[in-house]
Amino acid sequence: MPQLDKLLADLEEPEFLRQLEECLERGDDPAELLEECRGGMDMVGKRYETKEYFISDLVMAANIFTEALNKVRPRLGGDPKPGGTKIVLGTVQGDIHDIGKNIVAALFSARGFEVIDLGVNVPTQAFVDAVRESGARLVGLSALITTSFAGIRATVEAFAAAGLRSRVKILIGGGPVNEEVRRYAGADGVAGNAVEAVNLAESFSKEAA
Amino acid sequence: MSLSTYEERWRRIDAAAHGGVPDRVPVILGMDFFAARQRGMKTSEFIWGGEKARLVQQELAEKIQPDGVMIGSPLHPVLFQLIWPTKMSLPGRELSDDAIWQFNENGQDPVMVEEDYDFIIEHGWNAFVPKIIERCVDYMPGEEVFPKLMEISEQVPRDTEAWKEQGIVVFCSKADVSPFEIFSAGRTISQFFLDLYRRPQKVIDAMNAALPDILAVSLQVMKNSGVNRIFIGETRANGAFLSLEKYEKFCHPIMMAMLKAYSDAGIEVMLHYDQDCTPDLPYFLEYPGEGLVLHTDSFTDIFQAKKILAGHIALKGDVSPTMLTLGTPEEVDVYCKRLIGEVGRGGGFILSQGCDIPIDAKLENVEAMVQAAHRYGVYQDGKLPS
After folding, report:
1. Strand partners, B332
2. Domain for residue B385, yes or no?
3. Residue B386 forms part of a structural domain
């Protein structure tokens, strides 16, 4: 049995993809293969937390995982992990930066979340509508510039105005976003990096369960 | 403002930038968009530069009275796109009339493609610049770009003189970035990081091929600028994004080469590092050049930087943009007092915002910064009051 998790965690892209193809061709269970890939991403997250890996490594790992997902997904015959915790993600209105948000989205997918990615420059109402439609209990707001702090707060307030504030936990993150911004915006949590964001979301999910 | 005030401020800044003890901790501000907002100029007008854009900064400086400004000449999109090759969303066009511009790095549609590395390796950077103009500049005809750059370049010494007449020192006259940063923008950060894994030697070869052209242009512009310090801004070449192994392989050699070239030409450098470069600081001890200043943006541990770099590189920073926007004058005062007391001890420190002052910073917070230098930063017999 190849160690796909280790190959992914070691960022050995060509060998990982070669072995994944082999496994798929010989008919290995795609769901099990995906779980192994997720295990690899967990190792990546731990290496990031211990400062063995850095953002460039997260980008590489997320890219390999996405490639794996694209190969495995058609063999699953549907959603890779039905019932995964839903999270609505987006960069707030007035801000077009998507790199940090994309890294976070990939890590959430790897951890088994169902990501509803609204993109960048997302109007406040679109976050509310996405939560209504999906039933998600988690929202992640990204921002890279200080002028987006108002957009974060407006989004939090939009959930209150819609009567949904107590239904959702709102996480925020991105360059200048810190605890001071969380207090200003009235969000539930602030993550200093992508791995922290996923860990925080998991802890919120457990609280809600 | 008299010339003697200018000379007093220049000596203060020069002493600190060379690691010495001035009469007082100097304050240098970077306040471009912030000045426009404070003086009521729409950013959709401000971004196109010219004398009016400089004058709003001078009006604000007259009120705040810093010792110096980070760069004395106004912004223009084309100045950025040649060192940060991305498409831009502009105020008054994609964005509202009073927004800041934003760089549109789209990983699905990078300005530079993989084959561009080969082109740059074969032909150098200058040959590639027309392609950048063609792919990025969408607000003026391509043939007008170089005349516009000449016009801006010729305006720089006049801007410097205008600030001098006001009694305020221009710290840097031109902004530059390393080829590592240029490629990270052109390829987009996500594609570029994949390149570091998939084609590392090609990235290194292209950086080395691009550098001579980049340096030649910068040295020419600097020669006529009237200010002997260049701003080198690094945003991704740091310990938040890269392991030390990658920093050593991709970033350190090219920065050494840049700094040596400027040092050989007698040009001093302010290194501006976004994000957290704390892990990389020991490498900075090797950087050559008189009057080298490191400006950090509040993510780097400036107190740790003082311990590591004291006696080698002066420090400038680092009141966080978030604090200037959401904090209070009292919080700014407390932080500046700590900065001055710890980083200013023994000299070699310039008080400044981290990165730039945000457009929506509170004026009273910026004023609190300047006042803190007067309140806590006066040296007596080479020492700060305890």
Report:
1. none
2. no
3. no
Determine whether the interchain pair B323/A60 forms a contact, defined as Cβ–Cβ distance below 8 Å.
no
Closest CB to B193 among A13, A56, A145: A56
Quick one: A4-76 is in which CATH superfamily? Methionine synthase domain (1.10.1240.10)
Residue B101's nearest CA partner among B52, B136, B51, B54 is: B136
Report the CATH number at residue B249.
3.20.20.210
Contacts of B241 in chain A (CB under 8 A): 54-56
**Inter-chain residue contact B326 with A147, CB threshold 8 Å:** no
The span from the CA of B326 to the CA of B34, in Å, is 14
Residue percentage of chain A with pLDDT more than 90: 78
E strands of B107-193, at which residues?
A: 169-172, 174-176
In CATH, what is the architecture of A86-208? 3-Layer(aba) Sandwich (3.40)
ipTM associated with this complex: 0.92
Residues 6+ apart with CB under 8 A from B309: B281, B284, B285, B294, B315
Tell me how many domains chain B contains.
1
Closest CA of chain B from A103, distance in Å:
9
pLDDT digits (tens, 9 = 90+) for A81-137: 556 899 999 999 989 888 889 889 988 988 889 999 999 999 999 999 999 999 999
Q: Is the pLDDT of residue A157 over 80?
A: yes
Is A65 part of the contact surface with chain B (CB cutoff 8 Å)?
no
What local confidence, expressed as pLDDT, does residue A84 receive? Answer: 85
Q: Check pLDDT > 80 for residue B173.
A: yes
Inter-chain contacts counted by CB atoms under 8 A, chains A and B: 80
Q: Mean pLDDT, chain A, as a whole number?
A: 92
Residue B239 covered by a domain: yes
**What CA–CA distances, in Å, run from B72 to B149, B152, B169?**
16, 12, 8
- The pLDDT score that the predictor gives to residue A112 is 86
B320 in reach of chain A (CB within 8 A): yes
Residue entry with tokens 């420190």: B349
Whether B384 is covered by a domain: the verdict is no
Give me the pLDDT at residue B260, please: 97
- CB proximity B194 to A under 8 Å: yes
Predicted TM-score of the model (pTM): 0.94
pLDDT at A2: 58
Q: Are B211 and B251 in contact (CB under 8 A)?
A: no
| pLDDT per residue as tens digits for the range B119-171 | 999 999 999 999 999 999 999 999 999 999 999 999 999 999 999 999 999 99
| B304 interfaces chain A, CB cutoff of 8 Å | no
Range(s) within chain A of domains with CATH label 3.40.50.280:
86-208
CB neighbour class for A207 (10 Å; exposed up to 12, middle 13-18, buried from 19): exposed
- Report the 10 Å Cβ neighbour count for A166: 8
Q: How far is residue A83's CA from residue A93's CA, in Å, rounded to a whole number?
A: 29
Measured between CB atoms, does A59 come within 8 Å of chain B? Answer: yes
pLDDT of residue B295: 98
Range of the domain at B9: 3-376
